[in-house]
Amino acid sequence: MRFLRRSTPETPAEDADTGVVDPASTTGRAYTPGKGRATPSRREAEGRKRGPVAPPPTNMREAMRRNRELRKANPVSKDERRAAAKERRERMMSGDDKYLPVRDRGPVKAYVRDLVDSRRNILGLFMPLAILVFLALLVPVPAAQQYITLVCMAMLLVMAIEGVVNGRKISRLARERFPKEPTRGVGWYAFVRASQIRKLRVPKPRLRPGDPIPG
User: 199, 136 in Cβ contact below 8 A?
Assistant: First the structure.
């Protein structure tokens, strides 16, 4: 003989047909059904909000078309673009780290630029000398070409020696001034800076030849 008994709190009631436990029959506990999938990451959620990312342009024409579409979506006047470009240029020339190229950023590079700009370098005649060599090739006098070539070779030798000596000296001073900062490559950076015409250096020199280095 079977005895009928009521479902106890310890034994959840089962469906007579399927034998599946009824979640509503559990006593006193709220039941939260499983989601059946993993919780999406923040990147995935943001990607769904923004929508699918467009593939990169395959050619210049497509890039120009996308640029025009962006300008139409965010209309900016020509004067505003010119003003923004002018401001970026001025800040870069003044030495603002936010607007400088990566190779020119940091206190070490600023110190190296001050060291180079505070002295006169023979290496600064490199570009005028290159122009002189080019003009010498146009002179139809072999003797003049030979004489100019010898002078230019001697100047290049002096420039190379000066660049190596100054590069080592500036590297040592930079390591002493910034012992905790990376100083690799500052010698070559000083060489390139010194070989440029003073008025064409970017950013502009903060010091004149003979000025003391700020502490």
Answer: no
